[in-house]
Design brief:
Elements: H1 4-15, H2 20-27, H3 31-40, H4 58-67, H5 72-81, H6 88-97, E1 118-130, E2 133-144, E3 150-155, H7 160-174, E4 176-177, E5 180-183, E6 190-192, E7 199-200, H8 202-211, E8 214-217, H9 227-240, E9 245-246, H10 249-265, E10 267-268, E11 273-274, H11 275-282, E12 287-288, E13 298-303, E14 309-312, E15 315-318, E16 327-332, E17 336-341, E18 344-350, E19 359-360, H12 380-388, H13 393-402, H14 408-420, H15 423-435, H16 441-456
Parallel strand pairs: 1-5, 1-9, 5-8, 15-19
Antiparallel strand pairs: 1-2, 2-3, 4-12, 6-7, 10-11, 13-16, 14-15, 16-17, 17-18
Helix pairs in contact: 1-2, 2-3, 4-5, 12-14, 15-16
């Protein structure tokens, strides 16, 4: 079939008066083809109109496409069972031509960035072998848009804490920062809105302001806007993770930094340069980081349990035993756990990354052998009671023997009497109670009050006046 340029040439030569034979010889085509073009008088290539085998079944194809939930294999089986005679390839070609289940592709956008203008951040779920176990990991990536310098790290999960850790590590790796950080509309960073109306979470906005950049989000569904960082995840999956095994999370992230160094130093045919060379050009346009960047940590409030531990993400860390029952401030940093009692650090442990119920114990946090109260040592109430009134030793021993358990409630009641009542009436009442085997503390207290009544509350009786019959 002649194309449009050939048909145009035939019509032009015909207008100049050349014959069919001369035109056919000049263009190297048949005379019949020249005659057909001259007869049509149009340079437009005619479309071939062929009968489509699936045409008579158009409505049935649409109905089965909806019923089979877009599965063309099932659609083909159903319409063939109903008498249609067409192959699966004919069905799929018909569906492509008529847009059944095939939306036309939109042209991809192209973005150019000036040096230091923008960096892009995103995360992607993958699987990696860590510690001999295949685990789900979140790979975070930051890419400078002009030089394509890349930095990645692996995390067990990705919250605002991990996001701050990653961005801090990435910007320290680059040594500087771009003015804008493009993100998707993730809840980790976004407080409300999306795209141009996105409002970052206050703590993340403050974090970005301290490091000298601002967060911006692309419109929902506009993946081309963050293509610099999106394209790198396929390379990470098929190059960095392929065939690599890691001992632990720290080993994985150290290997990730080594891999980034290697990739950034390679020559890129697409960029016609090395990323490091482009970064040297971009460096003067990037913003310097603050002279001091504080360590990122998340703050917890924990009460030391009876075993002397505090819990962070199901992992338990020991604290000094003397702080049992105290509310402490716990700082969770990237590689360690710090415990503070007021302004003073009282414990420090290596941080366990995954929530696996681990227990970390520092020997110095346990009491020295024999320091705790011995098994048969008197309870504190008895010690205080005997220190205040040693003469009650025999009654106290008899009271404990007859009480249930350790007799703590009875000892507290007797100690309260020692504090509240005078010594002489109390000792007299206790002596009488011990003589008769009386250990009911309510009755003992009534005996004490009776002693006090006769000694301290003496009532005078008035004499009777013989004249008026009244008492004086």
């Amino acid at each position: 079939m002649l194309d449009q340029s050939q048909r145009t040439a035939i019509l032009e030569l015909r207008k100049k008066g050349h014959g069919v034979h001369a035109i056919a010889e000049a263009l190297g085509v048949s005379r019949d083809a020249v005659e057909d073009v001259v007869e049509s008088g149009s340079a437009e290539v005619p479309r071939l109109v062929r009968a489509e085998l699936a045409g008579p079944h158009h409505e049935e194809i649409l109905a089965q496409y909806a019923a089979c939930k877009g599965n063309l294999v099932r659609v083909h089986e159903e319409i063939v069972a109903r008498g249609a005679k067409l192959s699966y390839q004919a069905l799929t070609a018909y569906c492509r031509r008529h847009g059944i289940g095939h939306e036309p592709k939109e042209p991809a956008g192209h973005y150019d960035f000036k040096p230091g203008e923008e960096m892009q951040h995103d995360t992607s779920p993958h699987t990696a072998e860590i510690g001999g176990v295949l685990k789900k990991v979140n790979i975070a990536s930051l890419v400078l848009c002009f030089s394509r310098m890349i930095f990645i790290q692996l995390y067990a999960w990705f919250t605002r804490f991990e996001c701050k850790l990653f961005l801090t590590a990435a910007l320290k790796y680059f040594g500087r920062t771009a003015g804008r950080c493009m993100i998707d509309n993730t809840h980790v960073l976004v407080l409300c809105g999306s795209g141009a109306n996105m409002v970052p979470a206050p703590e993340m906005a403050a974090f970005a302001e301290r490091l000298g950049f601002q967060f911006a989000a692309h419109e929902i569904g506009d993946a081309n806007r963050s293509a610099r960082v999106e394209l790198g995840f396929d390379y990470v999956q098929n190059n960095f993770l392929a065939g690599r095994k890691f001992e632990d999370w720290d080993h994985a992230n150290r290997e990730a930094v080594v891999w980034c160094d290697k990739v950034n130093a390679l020559y890129s045919p697409k960029l016609h340069a090395r990323r490091r060379d482009l970064f040297a050009t971009e460096l003067v346009c990037l913003k310097p980081l603050p002279i001091w960047i504080p360590e990122v940590y998340v703050l917890h409030q924990r009460i030391v349990d009876l075993e002397g531990y505090i819990s962070v993400r199901t992992n338990r860390y020991s604290c000094p035993y003397r702080l049992i029952g105290r509310r402490l401030e716990v700082r969770e940093l990237e590689d360690r756990i710090e415990v503070y009692d007021g302004p003073r650090e009282v414990a420090r442990h290596a941080r366990v990354v995954e929530p696996k119920g681990a227990r970390l114990t520092e020997p110095a946090h346990r009491p020295p052998r024999g320091e705790l109260r011995k098994k048969h040592e008197p309870p504190p109430e008895e010690q205080e009671l005997l220190a205040a009134q040693p003469k009650l030793a025999s009654y106290t021993a008899a009271l404990k023997k007859r009480a249930s358990g350790k007799g703590t409630l009875g000892l507290r009641r007797l100690l309260k009497m020692v504090r509240d009542y005078p010594e002489a009436p109390l000792l007299a009442a206790v002596a009488r109670a011990e003589q008769y085997g009386l250990f009911d503390l309510d009755r003992l207290e009534r005996l004490v009050l009776r002693e006090i009544a006769t000694d301290y509350f003496v009532l005078t009786v008035k004499e009777k006046d013989p004249e008026d019959g009244t008492d004086e």
